[in-house]
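Journal club prep — side note

Before the paper discussion, L.F. wants everyone to see what a predicted structure for a comparable chain looks like in token form. Sequence:
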Amino acid sequence: MAIVGVPSDEICHATGCRILTGVHRCETADLAIVPHLSLLHDVDALAADVDLVVSFLYIVSFGVDVATTAQVATVRGVPSRLSSLQLVQHVAALKDEFTFFVGEQLRREGREVNRALGYIAGRPTSKYSVSAKPAADKDDIVFNSLRDVVLWACSARRVEKFKGPEAFVADGVAMPA
């Protein structure tokens, strides 16, 4: 379990589950806990922190399930008691083919984003690749800022069609599935 956007002491630690830490904690997480689902739609809030950008990139790329702190509280802090109706289940974007280029400024300021893209591209099931330079004749996705990464991840984010809490974009429209 990875905690994103919430101090970890706000989540019950008497759960018997392992809480992952560090910038790349969502790389191996099967569940991400967020304060509220609106965080996943708030481009400005996500782009303001490299830790949030990297976490969101993993959530979208690997299809990490998400629950809120309120949902975890309803099961007394034991995430294994969450039902599928209490989760937002994401579809892994790494199954789609994307070539990314990380611009010089982002390589300096957001080194962890570049590392995360490399980790994701290195997975056997990943169709991601990271290019050393953008190709003029290809549809490479160019990231020059943290905001660029968040905007792309928002566009690539998909949720499973499932009964339960639905994910909505900021204007109230349901997320594409």
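L.F.'s comment for the group: The beta strands are 2-3, 31-34, 65-68, 98-102, 128-131, 141-143. Keep this in mind when we get to the figures.
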